[in-house]
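Teaching note: in complex prediction, the entire set of molecules is handled at once rather than each chain in isolation. The prompt given to students was simply: 'Predict the structure of this complex.' The entities are:
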Amino acid sequence: MKNFYIFIAILFIPWSFSMAKYDEFEDGDDIMEYDDNDFAEFEDVNEDAVTESPQRIITTEDDEEEATVELEGQDENQEDFDDADAQEGDTESEPYDDEEFEGYEEKPDASPNKNKDPITIVNVPAHLQNSWESYYMEILMVTGLLAYIMNYIIGKNKNNRLAHAWFNTHRELLESNFALVGDDGTNKEATSTGKLNQENEHIYNLWCSGRVCCEGMLIQLKFLKRQDLLNVLARMMRPASDQVQIKVTMNDEDMDTYVFAVGTRKALVRLQKEMQDLSEFCSDKPKSGAKYGLPDSLAILSEMGEVTEGMMDAKMIHFLTHYADKIESVQFSDQFSGPKLMQEEGQLTKLPETKKTLLFTFNVPGSGNTSPKDMESLLPLMSMVIYSIDKAKKFRLNREGKQKADKNRARVEENFLKLTHVQRQEAAQSRREEKKRAEKERIMNEEDPEKQRRLEEAALRREQKKLEKKQMKMKQIKVKAM
Amino acid sequence: KPPATETNPALEDPTPDYMNLLGMVFSMCGLMLKLKWCAWIAVYCSFISFANSRSSEDTKQMMSSFM
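The expected output is the structure of the full assembly:
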């Protein structure tokens, strides 16, 4: 019953609101505020209601009515209801009648004339029109999107064609040198798919394996992002070229310990900053290769002179001079661990893992406007790679060189350990504390009080022994110092 | 000889992820603030993200980002 009453009350409130508004509509002046269409019935009555309105308005809210009056015809009435009494207003207008009688007559004459004034047609605002012009934004955007999609399709196809052209030219050479060509790693066993592995619309991978001295060779065709319109536009500002990156992972026993790099000066400077091994072992700036007959564009970064001497044999020099424009960088390293990891010192507790690797980065000629035919010119570079693999296997440092190399590596390790000494100490300390805590917990958890006592005693004895050991060490150090 | 399992190249291009995020942000802005240009930029971002994405990524995720 209570709920029913509440429901009725709730219904009553909006109804009362609507009734209140309806009252207001009956006032002529208020009508002008609202849409004419809704209250068209009041328009005819307007002039008649006007004379009555002053009285009504006085009784309701004067301020609102005065503010909303718009009709010229009502100006007279405004004067009227400015006065408190309508009748008084009439009587007051009498003295004016003589003086401004004509004017007064004209006014009613004037108002109908004004009413007959042509209605000015205002232009419909653009967003309400129903023509093409109002949709220019949409048309522009859709055109842009269509252009992007077209560029995507064209770019994707071009990259695809280039990749397959490269693969077709190199297939024979690869298949003659490697037992396994093309494995995407999806099967557990190694299976030769004989196809490129497409990672992206602009990156293609190929894994070759099954050669005597190397674990495997990963070839990455890093094309330009022809499928992305933004990239295409950026390339118009800054020309770039497709790249072929080859990474040969050598077996441990098949390569000696040295770090060596050859390439364009710009590339070497960048690599020296980025690569962990080059920055640690090759401290000098890249040297010019003119001594060995290399063109000026190429420079050499090496751990020791002996390595350079050993690497720069006739055939290698021949390769480098003839294809200098296509070579970006060549790096042989037994301490290769990738680019420098940007870690905080606190996190680095172990040296990064190193692998014996040969890295080659070649630029595809054409600097962006490559055609499938250009891929053929990269074939000799692949031969160079094969030759380098064999060379790296054969090349061995002499005794001096080996000693130097070992010293270098020990130095690098020592430096690293010094850096991380504090962290390792902290790590050891925390491990010890963990052990103690675990032991205490074990003791606490023991239900048998006898066992508890025994464990506690054992722990105490262990701690005492440790203290004694420390004291002995301190005494020994003191004696030695003396 | 063992095959390679390179699922994560050393240098991963962050473009598709950034574009995905931007697209979502712009689409939210466009929806909440009723700005048409925001919505269009969001569509563009999702297209760019799709163009730069790796083939290993979910197609379902791509489709949802278009939405």
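Point out the following to students. The interface with chain B takes residues 137, 141, 144-145, 148-149, 152, 179-180, 183, 185, 190-191, 198-201, 203, 205, 207, 209-211, 215-216, 218, 220, 225, 227-228, 230, 338-339 of chain A (CB under 8 Å). Residues 447-481 of chain A form one domain.
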